[in-house]
Amino acid sequence: MEYLPEITGVLFDIDDTLVDLETAMGRTLHQVGADTLAHLSDDDWTEYKRLYAHDPLGWYDRFLAGELTFTEQRLHRARHAQASFVEEPLEGEAARHWNTAYEATLPLHFAPYDDVVPLLDALDHRSIPYGAVSNNVHDYQRAKLNRSGLSRFEVLVGIDTVGVAKPDPAIYLEGARQLGTQPERTLYIGDNRMVDAEGADAAGLVGVWLDRRDAGPADFTGRRITSLTDVLQLLPHVR
């Protein structure tokens, strides 16, 4: 593990880094699809949830590019995930009803990973400031953090804060600016190797890939951890 004795602040991605969004999505899909998808086998449910959460057609990227609204990208993902399992596409009134139910249900399942609060407590104890930089809008992510019991985050930068999304350097740099730390002394931790670790590195921060599944390629030479409990190993000399 590389030692970084001059790190003075930490920035985090939110979704699937701090908040277990994939689990929340899966539970929500089960609830809102209880009637129309009752015929799915366990394997079908696994595939349905995988397709929705992983978004292989890149609908969320099109939202970030300004081509779709947030609701539109969500419905496109749902249609693609359901295509193999239902005959009627999710359109019209059915789509509106599904989206309303999804929006109401998803926040009920927001929760942090088990390793989040212990790390934040440790950073607080060491007086190391921390914040979050997310590829979603500020107010939506603020509500998500609060619902997850993470209202302690004072610094939160969303795509509407500076008008760009990761991996544009400006969004990481705004996080460091609000944190009050020099970019080269600021860790940025996220679950997406390219957008989070490599993007933060390119912006001049210290990018760290959180590979929770421990499935990273053997030839990856960047900084990689498998749990947030490993973060303090990167800060051995911070008092």
UniProtKB/TrEMBL annotation:
Pfam families: Hydrolase. One of its GO terms (molecular function) is hydrolase activity. Keywords: Hydrolase, Magnesium. Transmembrane segments: none annotated. SUPFAM superfamilies: HAD-like. It comes from the Bacteria. Gene3D superfamilies: 1.20.120.1600, HAD superfamily/HAD-like. InterPro entries: HAD-like_hydrolase (IPR051400), HAD-like_sf (IPR036412), HAD-SF_hydro_IA (IPR006439), HAD_sf (IPR023214). Signal peptide: none annotated. Its cofactor is Mg(2+). Its EC number is 3.1.3.-. This is HAD family hydrolase.
